[in-house]
Specification:
The complex is a heterodimer.
Chain A: H1 5-11, H2 16-29, H3 36-45, E1 50-56, H4 62-67, H5 75-82, E2 83-88, H6 96-109, E3 115-119, E4 122-123, E5 132-133, E6 136-137, H7 138-147, E7 151-155, H8 156-160, E8 174-175, E9 188-191, H9 198-211, H10 224-227, H11 238-242, H12 253-257, H13 332-352, H14 359-362
Parallel strand pairs in A: 1-2, 1-3, 3-7, 7-9
Antiparallel strand pairs in A: 4-8, 5-6
Helix pairs in contact in A: 2-3
Chain B: E1 3-5, E2 11-13, E3 17-21, E4 31-37, E5 43-50, H1 56-60, H2 68-73, H3 82-95, H4 101-127, H5 142-152, H6 161-176, H7 197-217, H8 219-225, H9 255-287, E6 301-303, E7 306-308, E8 319-321, E9 324-326, E10 345-348, E11 354-355, E12 371-372, E13 381-383, E14 386-389, E15 401-404, H10 413-422, H11 426-439, H12 449-479, E16 499-508, E17 511-520, E18 523-530, H13 532-536, H14 548-553, H15 565-573, H16 578-581
Antiparallel strand pairs in B: 1-2, 3-4, 4-5, 6-9, 7-8, 10-15, 11-12, 13-14, 16-17, 17-18
Helix pairs in contact in B: 4-7, 4-8, 4-12, 5-6, 5-7, 7-9, 9-12, 11-12, 12-15
Classes of the chains: A alpha/beta, B alpha+beta.
Chain lengths: 364, 598
């Protein structure tokens, strides 16, 4: 990322004369006077903002929507001062071939020096034609842009895992970035979540730019700074779990007092994400704080892991020391006893307060 | 070459040069547009093609109906939540579940905050660059911009020359870097841009200001739903509990949370009144000679209505957002809309990449079939994975063609506003009268691209006001002692009948949205959505009627065919949402038969 745009062009054998001509053309295409050309040239000879191609496959655009909710840094500062978001079909002014030409230009001129951000995924069924860009399958655009990029950011659960369109039976054969043939060897940063937290997205970008390297990734390819611990590990309702105080029905006394949502199907104990610490929308809240269990939206295949209101029965390990890489194959039976003990304790508490917790069921 | 007159009154002529826009950008999802222009660069034929398909309804089959909201919410992350709300309403309709008043108010607050934020983001970040030239803003005198700002919005405190100079300096530095980011390759030298530099600078400044502000509106949804995009919902009410001064109130909706919501509502009202509406009117004032894009808005409009005042009453009289249908341009009669009537809403597919047992018949959503059938016409240029020109005589889109009693309909803010106006809705009529008086245009000026854009702004203003209304209503209800937010009497599937069906509806920011579902033995047997962009972006139907996008493009002059900003203007005025329109799946859960592996 230390190479300037000018360096890259020279390395590719482009003469200084052609470079200056490019700067003049850039000024002219904007309707600016020729006096702007030397200023553009100067900027390009110094350190450029790293170009980003942000492609959209099969998705719902919730990742982009999340991104613009970032409070620190603000989305406008990321776009104006940190990166050069040269292609993002959701916000870019250009359309049609003017838009497609940008992909060609960046791939050519910034070979090996641009970031590819992927939102959504490519369907491989029906020759890829469940997602068409410029008359061609999206997967072609994806592979083309990936070939010469410096690194790939897989935004959200679609690009990281497949997400909702890849839920069973995955009718379009929607395929996450790292499983697209030919892309497995690329450096890929997965930032899962449906969507990811805005400030996590911008923090990943800021990390890349500030430290000029990829963040440390866990075995699944996620930045460990945000995805190495479970929501349950740092949930403010954790003491209620430990004390056996659970919400039994929506809007019951336990719900009103903020008890643990484990019995309502909360997937916090098996979900690796930063929701309970970074929280959402500039720290305003997160799902558990607003009374609903975590649905595990940053986990691979979370759509097919049983209903969102079914109590987890396969929790392997509740110990806070365990991280995503360490968990797996630990003593499930022991933990099962732990849960049963909690449940028993709760039942005992309930029986002491008969009638006090029936509010939810009685309200019509 | 063919010349045809469509039953809905448009003369199509494909003789002239074909202009293709793919991808259409600044929309949600993926779409392609092709038009033929004559020697005077006037559009004489228009084709709108949805170019993505995800298949969500097949995925829903056999799942727990209480989970459905989370799946369908992922149809769209831009109008996030509106599908979820439609879904919980459909399940509640099927299972006859009544929700508490507080839940109704909270749902309305969430839906209204979406309307405001979505409209605001659309105007500034998806649509503005069709009218506003950011490069031209560099030529502005910040003093002139300040004077303009103070003239059009005297109460906006951010109006000093220095404020605009700061933005201009930042923009200058950005442009001088030669890295134009989102503004790269725009049509900035096109004479179709008409704003003077001082207005461009004002609009660009607000582009950035609105980007900062919109995220605050959505905090309301995070307070009640835990996160945004994609907050959490609940069949039977809302998941958040209210606890004002009891034990543990600090983990629930309490006074501090209510104050936060309230302060956001106040700031939202101010932003819409002081920034959005004045900008809208100022920009429209410079473009009011550009009266293209009416399409079918003067003929056929549809709205299901939304925002129930009292909980559980979905009748027309209780819906604050208008409901009804107008056909043949007759504003004196607003027709009743019944989503359960098999004769009213039907979907057709002769020009869509699907197959029915009989392709020529339309099907009501409860009885629909969606089996993909990707097949290009004989006159397609290119091949099946490299399309150069579509053949609109054959199948050409992943969007179906829904029709109301056989009519192609326009849905969205303009439809809601015209229907409300025709019904004599006082608030809507006052707003419309204010706009036509300010701009000095006749009411028929509404039937245009600009009219669509104006209606969206007015609706944002209306919705912000209604947020205040429901906030006050909820506080009064809490004060009366009612804290309930969920009805769990039928939470347990064991209490459900064996076989039921239901329909839920909302007015999404982009228009009428309906979900139809069948539940068999506690699982989803069938789920079908008909969404706003399916209505607006539909291809031709069996009768040859063109859809709202296609109709709106007709007869528009394109100054520079290689820079078709006029096409973008009109398409953007509908705020297309392609992920929504093309999510469809077979209601009987038929597995796809066309799957080929690369």
């Amino acid at each position: 990322m230390n190479e300037t745009f000018y360096d890259v062009m020279r390395r590719q054998g482009i003469t200084r004369r052609s470079f200056l001509k490019f700067c003049s053309l850039t000024a002219a295409s904007l309707g600016l006077s020729p006096a702007f050309a030397p200023k553009i040239a100067h900027a390009m000879e110094t350190k450029p903002r790293i170009p980003v191609l942000w492609l959209h496959g099969l998705e719902c655009t919730c990742c982009s929507e999340s991104f613009i909710r970032s409070g620190h840094p603000l989305a406008k500062d990321v776009i104006l001062s940190m990166l050069s978001l040269d292609y993002d079909d959701t916000i870019m002014a250009a359309a049609g071939h003017n838009a497609e030409a940008i992909v060609d230009e960046i791939v050519e001129k910034y070979k090996g020096n641009y970031i590819l951000a992927v939102e959504g995924n490519a369907p491989l069924a029906e020759d890829g034609m469940y997602c068409i860009i410029g008359g061609k399958p999206f997967v072609e655009q994806l592979k083309y842009a990936a070939e010469s990029c410096k690194a790939i950011i897989s935004w959200g659960s679609c690009a990281s895992w497949g997400c909702v369109q890849a839920a069973k039976p995955n009718p379009t054969r929607a395929t996450p970035t790292h499983k697209i043939p030919g892309l497995a060897d690329k450096p890929i940063i997965k930032v899962p979540g449906c969507p990811p937290i805005a400030e996590v997205m911008t923090a990943v970008v800021a990390y890349l730019l500030t430290f000029e390297k990829l963040p440390t990734l866990d075995k699944q390819g996620r930045p460990q700074m945000f995805y190495s611990q479970r929501i349950h590990d740092k949930c403010y309702r954790r003491p209620h779990f430990d004390a056996g105080q659970f919400v039994e029905h929506w809007d019951d006394e336990g719900a009103r007092q903020g008890h643990c949502l484990y019995k309502m199907g909360c997937k916090g104990p098996t979900t690796y994400n930063a929701c309970s610490t970074v929280r959402w929308n500039e720290g305003v809240s997160f799902p558990i704080q607003a009374g609903h269990g975590c649905i595990g939206c940053s986990e691979d295949g979370f759509w097919d892991k049983g209903g969102f209101y079914e109590r987890l029965s396969d929790i392997n390990d509740f110990s806070i020391e365990a991280n995503a890489d360490a968990v797996g194959g630990t003593a499930a039976a022991v933990v099962g006893v732990g849960i049963a003990a909690h449940a028993g304790l709760t039942a005992l508490n309930r029986s002491k307060k008969t009638g006090a917790n029936q509010t939810g069921a009685d309200q019509q | 070459m063919t010349v045809t007159k469509t039953p809905n009154g448009f003369n199509l002529n494909d003789a002239g040069r074909r202009v293709i826009v793919d991808p259409v950008t600044r929309i949600e999802g993926h779409m392609r547009c092709e038009v033929n222009i004559d020697d005077d660069n006037i559009i004489r034929n228009a084709i709108s093609s949805g170019t993505m398909w995800r298949g969500l309804e097949v995925i829903l089959k056999g799942r727990d109906p209480r989970d459905a909201w989370a799946f369908v919410q992922r149809i769209c992350g831009v109008c996030t939540g509106t599908h979820a709300l439609t879904s919980v309403r459909a399940v509640e309709d099927a299972l006859k579940i009544k929700i508490p008043e507080n839940a109704n108010s909270i749902r309305n607050l969430m839906q209204l905050s979406l309307q405001v934020q979505d409209h605001l983001v659309h105007f500034y970040h998806l649509h503005a660059l069709d009218w506003v030239n950011p490069v031209n803003a560099l030529k502005a005198d910040p003093v002139a911009t300040s004077a303009l700002q103070q003239k059009i919005s005297p109460h906006n405190p951010k109006s000093s020359p220095g404020y605009f100079r700061d933005t201009q300096n930042r923009l200058l530095k950005f442009v001088e870097s030669g890295q134009l980011g989102p503004f790269k390759n725009g049509y900035w030298t096109n004479p179709a841009y008409l704003l003077p530099p001082e207005a461009d600078l004002m609009a660009v400044t607000h582009y950035l200001e609105a980007l900062d502000f919109q995220k605050d509106i959505m905090k309301i949804r995070t307070i009640f739903g835990g996160k945004d995009p994609h907050p959490n919902w609940l069949v039977g009410g809302v998941p958040c509990a209210i606890n004002i001064d009891g034990v543990g109130a600090n983990g629930a909706i309490n006074m501090e949370r209510l104050n936060l919501v309230s302060s956001i509502i106040d700031r939202t009202i101010d932003f819409i009144d002081q920034v959005y509406i004045p900008d809208l009117l100022a920009i429209a004032g410079f473009y009011k000679g550009w009266m293209y894009g009416g399409g079918i808005s003067g003929q056929s409009l549809l709205s299901y209505g939304d925002i129930p005042d009292k909980a559980n009453d979905y009748s027309t009289a209780n819906l604050l957002m208008p409901r009804g249908a107008i056909i043949n341009g007759d504003l004196t009669k607003v027709h009743e809309v019944d989503l359960t009537d098999p004769e009213q809403i039907k979907e057709f597919i002769p020009h869509s990449w699907y197959k029915y047992p009989d392709d020529s018949l339309g099907l009501h959503p409860w009885d629909g079939v969606t089996e993909p059938n990707y097949k290009l016409g004989l006159n397609t240029k290119g091949d099946r994975t490299h399309i150069k020109e579509l053949d609109e005589a054959a199948k050409y889109s992943w969007i179906k063609a829904p029709r109301w009693r056989g009519h192609a309909m326009e849905v969205g803010p303009l439809a809601r506003y015209v229907i409300g106006y025709a019904q004599g809705n006082k608030e809507i009529t006052e707003q419309i009268n204010f706009v036509i008086k300010t701009l000095d245009v006749p009411v028929t000026a509404l039937f245009s691209t600009l009219g669509r854009t104006a209606a969206r702004g007015l609706e944002a203003q209306w919705a912000a006001g209604k947020m205040r209304y429901f906030m006050d209503k909820m506080v009064a209800n809490i004060k009366s002692g009612d804290l309930a937010t969920a009805n769990v009497a039928k939470w347990d599937p064991e209490t459900w009948p064996g076989s039921v069906k239901g329909v839920g509806f909302t007015e999404a920011p982009r228009g009428a949205l309906g979900h139809w579902l069948k539940i068999e033995n506690t699982k989803i047997a069938n789920y079908q959505c008909v969404v706003p962009t399916t209505w607006n972006g539909s291809p031709r139907d069996e009768q040859g009627n063109i859809g709202a996008f296609e109709a709106a493009l007709m007869n528009t002059k394109v100054e520079r065919p290689e820079e078709p900003v006029e096409i973008l203007r009109t398409l953007h005025s509908f705020d297309p949402c392609l992920a929504c329109s093309t999510h469809i799946i077979s209601p009987d859960g038929t597995e796809l038969t066309q799957v080929k592996v690369r």
